[in-house]
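Q: I'm writing a short explainer about Cytochrome c oxidase subunit 6C for a general audience and would like to include a description of its predicted shape. Could you first generate the structure from this sequence?
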Amino acid sequence: MRRLLARRMKFHLFGAFFVSVGCAALYKFGVAEPRKRAYAEFYKNYDPMKDFEAMRAAGVFESAPPK
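A: Of course. Here's the predicted structure. Afterward I'll give you a sentence or two in plain language.
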């Protein structure tokens, strides 16, 4: 029974560290990287003036009335 708490704490500390590193890696490669690629692909062909003119024609803006 001697040093039971220290031994179990060491085990759980290492376990928690490896689980957290695994979750961080899963999030980075499963969520963040695909999202980054999707944004890059979207903005590769994005024309903000065309989008502005479409919103202007729809009457979204009060300061820029539709033509």
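A: For your explainer, you could say: The longest helix spans residues 4-44.
Q: Perfect, that's easy to follow.
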